Every structure is written in structure tokens, then in C-alpha cells.
UniProtKB/TrEMBL annotation:
Name of the protein described by the UniProt record: Chromosome-partitioning ATPase Soj
MF GO annotations: hydrolase activity
Top class in the EC scheme: hydrolase
InterPro entries: AAA_dom, DNA_Partitioning_ATPase, P-loop_NTPase
Family matches, as Gene3D superfamilies: P-loop containing nucleotide triphosphate hydrolases
Organism: Ferrovum myxofaciens
Keywords assigned: Hydrolase
Length: 256
């Protein structure tokens, strides 16, 4: 069993793209992933071809404690998704003052839900109630970092925040950083990659996700990159990343 929070406090770094295409890569390998869209923007849901009605999906879980297994939506790409709806943005305001609210998702992932492996959670880019729920439920944290200066500074702050959270929760989160939107024609991309590897060592994935037209375009037609352009560089990169994470023991891939 493997529950993975895909998280970065900076937007535009490839969180949703990573969730979408890692799931697709593992489906191709015979896995049976479950995706949770915990970002009120709902980009993962849209990219998967699923539109949640108001109050449905993850909002129904947090507002009405609807069992997660009752909220599954089957995607055309072959995995189950619990979608986001705009109502999800209300959760921080409604439950932010409740100290027990951060553990709702962890408690809601009963044994049947956890048999689905991997479970990938696309987190919103802030450390509010939704993200804290994801982190408390997670076994691992995957941090996409775009190969630019602002993203580099963001990951330094994020790593510090996770260190503080680990001390408070008295647990360790195995982490991996994956460099995304890597442009080999830009010196800055190599400099960001070098600084990350010098500072975080083997925590940084060997696989880099290069900038690719197919990766940018495929969500607009509600397809993962393997369905949209199976021979593209983007498909090759995410296939390599899925293999690297599996072989490194970062996750355990359940089979259909």
C-alpha cells in the first residue's frame, strides 16, 4: 500500500501533470491507482475528463463524511478518481478552527480504500486543512519543482516547513523531488538542477521531466500524455519516473 501526497506550495510546477501521468504510467504497468483531487481548482479532475457537480466528490467527504468508496468516478484512462468541485474551497473556512479536521482523510481511508495502491493526492498549493489532511494520510511526499529560480526558492521553504511538520507529528516523510519543466537550452535549468542535487542528494529523482508540447496540450483534451502522444518525450519521461520511483521502493504498486 502506498499513499502519496504530490505537493508544492508554489503553483505552476507540474503537480497535476505529475499526478495525471504517473497514474497513467502505472496503469500501463498493470497497477490500479486511485487519485484524489484535493485542489479546489479541480485541474486534475478536468484533465481526467471528470466534472464534479456542486457538493460532490471530495467536498462531499469533508462536508458530509460520505465514504470515499461511494465517491469514485471511473476515468476513460482506466483509473478511479474522486474529483474536486469549487465547494472544496470552503473547507478551510468551515473546518479551519477544528483541531480534529486535519485527521478526517486519514480516518476516512479505511482498509478497503488503502488496498488501492498507489493512491495519489493532488494537493492545493498551501498548508491549509486540505493539505494537512493529505500529509497526515500520506506515506510519501513527492515534490515537483520547476527548473526556475522561484521554484528553487520555494522548495527550500517547503522542505523547512515539512521538517517542522515532521517534528510536530513525530513522524518522518520519505520524500522525493522531481525536476519538471526542464529546458535543456537554458543554463538556468541546469543550475537549478545542480543546486537541488547538491543540497538534497539522492532525494532528487534522477529522471527529469523536460518541457514538452504534448505534456502541455494533453490536459486540454482530457487525456494523459500516453493516450495523447504515446511516442512523445513527455511520455518517455513519465514512464522513466514511474519506473524509478517503483524500483527505489518509494511506493508499492498494487495490481489489478
Amino acid at each position: 500500500m502506498s499513499v502519496i501526497a504530490v505537493f508544492n506550495q508554489k503553483g505552476g510546477v507540474g503537480k497535476t501533470t505529475t499526478c495525471l501521468n504517473l497514474a497513467a504510467a502505472w496503469v500501463r504497468d498493470g497497477a490500479n491507482p486511485l487519485l484524489l483531487d484535493l485542489d479546489p481548482q479541480g485541474h486534475l479532475s478536468l484533465a481526467s475528463g471528470v466534472v464534479a457537480s456542486p457538493g460532490a466528490g471530495m467536498a462531499a467527504f469533508f462536508q458530509h463524511q460520505t465514504p470515499l468508496l461511494h465517491l469514485l468516478e471511473r476515468t476513460r484512462s482506466g483509473w478511479d478518481l474522486i474529483p474536486a468541485s469549487p465547494d472544496l474551497s470552503k473547507i478551510d473556512a468551515l473546518r479551519g478552527g477544528d483541531p480534529k479536521a486535519a485527521a478526517l482523510l486519514s480516518k476516512g481511508m479505511n482498509a478497503v480504500v488503502r488496498e488501492r495502491s498507489p493512491i495519489l493526492m493532488d494537493c492545493c498549493p498551501n498548508l491549509g486543512v486540505l493539505t494537512l489532511n493529505a500529509l497526515l494520510a500520506a506515506d510519501y511526499v513527492l515534490i515537483p519543482v520547476a527548473a526556475d529560480y522561484l521554484s528553487l526558492q520555494g522548495v527550500f521553504r517547503l522542505a523547512t516547513a515539512l521538517d517542522v511538520l515532521e517534528k510536530r507529528l513525530k513522524r518522518i516523510y520519505p520524500r522525493r523531488i522531481v525536476v519538471t519543466r526542464f529546458n535543456p537550452r537554458r543554463k538556468l535549468a541546469f543550475e537549478v538542477d545542480r543546486q537541488l542535487r547538491e543540497r538534497y542528494g539522492e532525494t532528487v529523482c534522477k529522471t527529469r521531466i523536460a518541457e514538452n508540447v504534448a505534456l502541455a496540450t494533453s490536459p486540454s483534451v482530457s487525456q494523459d500524455v500516453f493516450r495523447y502522444a504515446p511516442h512523445s518525450g513527455g511520455a518517455a519521461d513519465y514512464a522513466a519516473l514511474a519506473k524509478e520511483l517503483s524500483e527505489a521502493g518509494f511506493l508499492q504498486v498494487g495490481r489489478k
